[in-house]
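Dear colleague,

Thank you for sharing your sequence with our group. We've completed the structure prediction you requested, and as agreed, I am returning the results in plain text so they can be pasted directly into your records. Please verify that the sequence below matches your submission; if there's any discrepancy, let me know and we will rerun it promptly.
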Amino acid sequence: MDSSNTQDQRIAKMTFALVYPMYLAKVEKKGRTKEELDQVITWLTGFDNKKLQELIKEMVTFETFFQEASLHPNAHLITGVICGYRVEEIANPLTQRVRYLDKLVDELAKGRKMDKILRG
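Please find the predicted structure tokens below.
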């Protein structure tokens, strides 16, 4: 990814709690549930629901969010284009993880089966 350092820094400083409602609105608009969204997030990050809600309440940045996460061993299987970039080609590890999450939310909103989303 030919991402500028500025874009990577902007993504790192974004607050997860401010983006989460947008993820939720996107999936609910397409008939999916908050529970399904949380399942996708917990699969990727290793957080349980209690920890996820705690991080939302603390208004952590994506940088802190993913520093505390234990990325799923199959996260590397998340491929495809999101925001005009192939997620598997993104050089910055944090930006790649955020785009992994974006890609999973996008797949959920598009009606993909959960076992496919979770790379089962």
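Summary note from our side: Residues 5-117 form a domain with the Helicase, Ruva Protein; domain 3 fold (CATH 1.10.8.290).

Kind regards,
the structure core
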